[in-house]
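Onboarding guide, step 5: your first structure request.
Type a short instruction followed by the sequence, for example:

Predict the 3D structure of this protein.
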Amino acid sequence: MDFAAVGKKIKELRKNSGLSQEELSEGICTQAQISKIEKGIVYPYASTLYQISQKLGVDVNYFFDIGTTPRLDYVQEVSRQLQIMRRSLRFHEMMEIVRAEEINPLFFQNKKNLQLLLWHKGIYLYEVKKDLKASIETLHEAVNITHIKGKIMLEREIEILLTMGAIYYREDIDKALKTFEDIKGHIQLLPDLNDYTIKTRLFMNMARTLTRLNRINDSNQYCEDAIKWCLHKDSLYLLGEIHYQKGYNFELLNQPERAKMYMEKALIVFELQQDDKYIVFIKNKLVELSALSR
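The system replies with structure tokens like these:
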């Protein structure tokens, strides 16, 4: 049994649940004992491990699996596959994974893992079934399955809210803005972000939403905040889209020269990423803007 792997996983789940070592230890053992378990110094009795698993919302067998096959984390692999399907818009394949795992005890007996399936089911209901009501209800259920009222929201819960905001952006722009403003408040309460792209996505979505509401200057400010965040994180993620959005804003303000400047920067990023689907479109926009600025 790999005690260090079990301890590392307990620490990871505890942090994801927003619990301190003291809160996890309450009614089970001492805080010092939890610290030793997480460091792999000691291995808990079976009864202690069971109580820890209950508090963290996982099946106790999960820890035995981690301990005996530390390099094989099935849930993480399912999560990775769902992310690939989601980002590549392969919604039917995504739902096939969800259906397969819905009968897996590792998922339906664990709130956090079940939340993962509900999240992607909600996306499928909107993108494929075109059922807005069922989609939003499922996404709310996904958030509520782990969220404790009065507690700081976890990153996964915030990601699900981002999904709801993106859906509202296509259906109800005012609800979209309200959702993104709520997310901003939740992020500000987090001491740190493990996934920095959550903030990038929020800034991008706020900018797009404010442009739709004709609040161009506010949108530009979010674009600028997003650019600074990407530079701070040394990341190209959404950097091309953000520069394009700011260029589009200046186009709406009838400032073709400034619009060209930001779209040229967007083009550079997309060419670096070899993202062909935007390159031709932006080159055509630059031709149009050049004609306007003569």
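Each response can be followed by summary notes, for example: The chain is about 75% helix and 0% strand.
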